[in-house]
Amino acid sequence: MPAGTLYRGREGMWSWVAHRVTGVLIFFFLFVHVLDTALVRVSPEDYDKVVATYKTPVVALLEYGLVAAILFHALNGLRVIAVDFWSKGPRYQKQMLWSVVGLWLLLMLGAIYPVLGHAARELFGS
Amino acid sequence: MATTETTAAGIGPVEGGSVYCVDNPAPFIEPPRLRTKKTPRSTRGNFEMGAWLFMRLSGVVLVVLVLGHLLIQLVLDGGVSKIGFAFVAGRWASPFWQVWDLLMLWLAMLHGANGLRTVINDYAERANTRLWLKGLLYTATVFTILLGTLVIFTFDPNIR
To answer: For this UniProt entry, which segments traverse the membrane (chain A) (predicted)?
Structure first.
């Protein structure tokens, strides 16, 4: 651990950690995603072959994880902007974090069927 | 250290009544970044401030672009099941979605690259390690942005 840093171990720190981790994960996915999309310049068959793997149940679960990371990073990013630019932002940072978590949970519940539905139909039959 | 050329602006009253009075004046604390004629001109520029601002501005735009992208690709109209070459060709036939994807590519890559630059600065303690990691990061970033841009601009729906 780098010397001379202050880890305070409360909501502020953990949301910062989660923001970092989700940000790095999303960025690495982005590299792969640009590469797979670049296959449309190679041939329709190669592109469709790779995208077919994205429709398997295992990758559907990874997609759900990607949605989770992006939604948290987006909502918490808006909270960071509010903390920086809204005069009362720092005072309400905790309330805003719990609002972010609440909204995130709600959206993740809503994403279950659209993102994982096809995987469930494949696994258990429709 | 009190000086005569500045006033105590910025020091508000202490909550619950001041402990200072005429006989016991509050110590004057000079604003830490007060710029005077004697302050040497900064030679560093405002790159870090620009980067900080870019993260917030691009972040707001990306929330709209990326969540819209997720909604279209993973939720609406059968979710991921409908995606294929034909679907991509249909969307990139419209300049609107070309611009959407191009803007999303550039903003997301630059936003992510700057984020990872911060992470490298934070955790790589040796100057040489930082140099190599950032060299790798910038190379991969430029390559990916150029590749993605090329793909959007040269997309050919009748490739075969």
So the answer is: 21-42, 54-75, 96-116
Domain range spanning residue B84?
A: 79-155
Over chain A (126 residues), what is each successive 10-residue block's mean pLDDT? 65 92 96 94 90 91 95 96 91 93 96 87 79
Q: Which chain A residues have any C-beta within 8 angstroms of a chain B C-beta?
A: 2, 20, 23-24, 26-27, 30-31, 34-35, 37-38, 40-41, 43-45, 47-48, 51, 54-55, 60, 63, 67, 70-71, 74, 77-78, 80-81, 84-85, 111, 114-115, 117-118
CA distances to A54, A77, B144, B146 from A44, in Å: 15, 37, 21, 21
State the number of CA atoms in the 13 A half-sphere of B21 facing the CB.
Answer: 3
Separation of alpha carbons A96 and A83, rounded Å? 9
Query: Does residue B96 sit within a domain?
Result: yes
- pLDDT 10s digits, B7-46: 444 445 555 566 777 777 777 777 777 777 787 777 777 8
Q: Would you say residue B83 lies in a domain?
A: yes
The SS3 call for residue A110 is helix
In a domain, B60, yes or no: no
The model's pTM is: 0.81
Total tally of structural domains belonging to chain B = 1
Q: Is there a domain that residue B109 lies in? A: yes
pLDDT in tens, B50-109: 999 999 999 999 999 999 999 988 888 878 888 888 889 999 999 999 999 999 999 999
All structural domains of chain A: 11-124 (1.20.1300.10)
